[in-house]
Amino acid sequence: MAAETYALWKLLVLGIGLSCIILGVVFRIYIQPTPEYLVGVRQYSKSIPLLLFRVAVLGFFVAVWVLEISTTDWFDLVYYTWWNFSLQIVYFTLAIVDQAKHWHQARCYANHALNTLFDVCFTSCFLVALVYWILLFNPSNHLEWFVYVVHLVNVFVLLLDFGANDHVVQRTSLKYVVLWPTLYSILTWIGNSSYLDGFWPYNLMDLSKSLAPLIWFGIILAHVGCFGGVLLLSKLKLRCVGVPPPPPSDAVASPHVQNDLPHLEIVTPHVQDDLPHLEIVTPHIEKDPPRPKPATT
């Protein structure tokens, strides 16, 4: 009875906590407008090596995805690793399309949607690699070659793309970085109670563990920490290849300054007209009779 009560307590904590995260993220998306910002780094839209690199990466990632997913009969998609690997395939596909679209003319404003997608991929890729090699890796187990691809090779691939693309990690992407693992947690929880027949993809998520709620929220919080790390990398990128924003045009600013000058000149005569009134008051004060001196003895 005690064990069932404790399990119910964990379910309530997780249910309320995940719901609050979802509502908070949706509220932030609703009240925060989509920002427009200038591209802050050098653009390589006409870079043939970058385009060939992305095409090669996309072909390789798709081949790995098809081989592994077909081998496991789609079961690997229950793992967060393959969620992220699939999202990386989506990013490289859209990045190729975006680069081809702006091949002849570089854009002034950044592609916010693509930038946000890259921020989520970049952050989650680092976290998956850290969690796997620090917490889940067992040296005694034999590793298949694709394990290195989805836990290590993709990290270096995204680092190379980050060095060549025109994306700068945006603070506004944090809500999507938090939303991504939260959605995975909710769907995995639903799957555990339905189509997964009580199976947990990761032992860390097993609700029978006493610290399960803390681990679940800790993983989401770890995404925030990794996001801070990629923000620092982005600041380093700005220092190395950043370009200053264009200065405001003098032709736009000058007319406003010149048109304001006549208004100052109109006020000046009004001040001068008040001076005679001051002069009239002054003699009136001087004509006041002096006070009598006290009598002396």
UniProtKB/TrEMBL annotation:
Keywords: Membrane, Transmembrane, Transmembrane helix
TM region positions: 6-27, 48-67, 79-97, 117-139, 145-164, 176-195, 215-233
Keyword Ribonucleoprotein included in the entry's annotation: no
Keyword Membrane belongs to the record: yes
A cellular-component GO term for this protein: membrane
Entry-linked PANTHER family: OS02G0130600 PROTEIN, OS02G0130600 PROTEIN-RELATED
Name of the molecule in the record: Aste57867_20103 protein
Gene for this chain: Aste57867_20103
